[in-house]
Amino acid sequence: MLFNSFDYLIFLPVVFALYWLLNSNLKLQNLLVLSASYFFYGSWDWRFLFLIAFSTFVDYSCSIQISRSSRLRVRKWWLAISIFANLGLLCFFKYYNFFVDSWVNMFASIGYEMSPWTMNIILPLGISFYTFQTMAYTIDVYRRKIEPCKDYIAFSAFISFFPQLVAGPIERASDLLTQVTKTRTFNYIQSVQGLRLILWGLFKKVVIADSLGKGVAPLFNHWSEYTGTDMLMAGVFFAFQMYADFSGYADIAIGSAKLMGIELRSNFRFPMFSKSVLEFWQRWHISLTKWFTDYLYIPMGGSKKGLAIAIRNIFIIFLISGLWHGANWTFIVWGAYQAAFYIPVFAYRKIYGKPMIGHIHNAALRHIVNVGSVVFTVLVLSVSRLFYRAEHIGHSYVMLKKMVTDAFTPISTPQYLWYIGILVFIELFIRRDERNPIPIKNTFLRYLYCSALIVAILLHIDSHNQEFLYFQF
Amino acid sequence: MNPSVKKFIVRVLFAVTAFAGIYTVFSVIVAATTVFTPDIESLFFYKPYMNGGQYQRASDLDKWLDSRSNSTPSGLMLGSSVVFLNVDPFILGKKTGIDFFCAASSSQDVVNSQHILEHCLRSKKRIDYIFLGVNYARWGTNNYESSIDWTINNYKPYRRYVFEMVATCNEHLLWMNFFYYSIKRMLPFGQEHFRVEKDDSRYMGKGFVCYTDYERTRKIEPFIEVSQMSTGNYASLKKIITICEHRNIKLVIFLPKILNAQYDSGMLRIIKEPLITAVTCPIDTNLFYDNYHLYCKGTVSYTEWIADKFNQLHQYNKRAGN
After folding, report:
1. Is the ipTM here above 0.90?
2. Cut 0.90: pTM above it
């Protein structure tokens, strides 16, 4: 069941109505959330339910065992079981074939032929997201940051909470679980904000992302028929498509949760206006960046053991982040590319204590440099998307080569720039606050604006609903 | 229920109503712009077109329904382009003595044929025969194309049979166009800007359209897959049969000739009504410009063959006392 489908248009109001009818009984309400979430998830493939149920059971049990023991070795043992179970699931379903193929290819390159033992494995939807969420919970219990949840229904509802189950935001137990275990109160303003977020998210997904996707596909699939500038445009279109698609999903998820009186964390803060790759990663997929920071970067020493160690850690995190995004060498190269632009800015700030623009005192010049930085960052990110979207390294290489050797040629599909222009205009001049997508005070103008968004959505929505791009992770 | 929840629901309902009002005003404004330019309408809605004769057919159908003739029996032809492009109602009428009108449209399935039949029966015109073309290569599909045709190429789309087509198809773009064109064609202003196509079809009258012989490029596919009849089409077929039985209308079901289609004779088992199977029609296949449709000159012999079969069936039924 996709957020941009008629099924969800029926599902959400039904769940909303039943949810608030059961408000006097927290346990029943959480049971409803759990049932609705399993129904939502099972609508893709009922077999996926066994995996999430298994992951839930393992982490519930391990966290209770961790909290019961004061012996460090026992606590570590239960933590290891939880991490092994979750990572084991993730590695098997997501990376098994990748590692087998890479292993076989490596030996083939030195002349040793092996028969591959690949399997026809279906990647369960959202597995990268909910396994990270459950691992975070168990680690937090181990670190004594939170108490384990004894209510199995509430815990299961926390893990499988349908608005954020499939593509985040990756929530922490200290945020989401505490809300699930407490009585919720209907908040009129919160619910209205939720509806506005859903509308804005749908607009970004259906109108901007899916339209840009139609321009992106032929550029990547038939790249030889296009110019060098088209290759750059392919990256630009895909970068904005990814942003509109993923942030659109996040907005609908946050909006849906608000309708149930639950606040999810923001996952995007206008990342396409970032002035550097470092700033981009502070504004893009914030929950994943935070997860890597808290559970990998800091345990590895973070920035506390000197600049060289910090740089090493950042580089490793980006490689892992690349691998998290997909089981392909293109994602690992993408991660390394990101690190190559992130690390210099990070190092400069560490050494000088402020960003490079901090040395410019002239306001007009600062403004020009800011705008230039944003454009440069968008171009850097757009090039990185060539690795992201390409089927294999060779594919991205030929597109990059064409971009360089056939530069300054006309754009074949300029019409898609309109969609980027509309998105940038709205985000820059109308939206401004990422939690309040429709900050128009005048009632008539607000209704007019919302109607325009709805008409645009209806004109663009496809009866063959386009999946969200981040579902593949 | 919590008063805040009630307030929220009321606010949502108000917003939906406000949207409907704004959309209505928006439709009126877009319709008004057609006086000056077709571009704004084209941005948001489908453009009407002359190709296929649907615009003329919709108004001619109403004129035919309003016409009265006590001496000549009347016949309604229904179906898709395998009817309105291939079967000439003038020739069919001349050879059978029945005043036929062809209320077929592009990809029109049995469901939409049922809606049109019910519309025609609501008029005062007596209908004696139904000639129902069933495209067995396409009867698993939905009726989107036909519903669009009857909506945007219709001088009066705000009528029950069009609404029923739109509601059955239930596609959001179809609803938007239905709403817009209903408003536009109710207004005294508003110009029609037809899509201009390099087209060689001619509307001949009585719902019949013809392609001239030498301009259309011939393209024949080596294999046409035949789909299963959808449950909707099957239900509509049964409904049409029931309507005809109750109204004493003689129904003839027509299976067209489709080149290289795997014709399933098993479907005959579900159709107990009089049947004309043009699958075995001995027409020169070079007269087809694609697997489904005939050049203009091909429609003559094809229709004459159908007319002979029709008359044989009619005589058979007369002798059988039907």
Report:
1. no
2. no
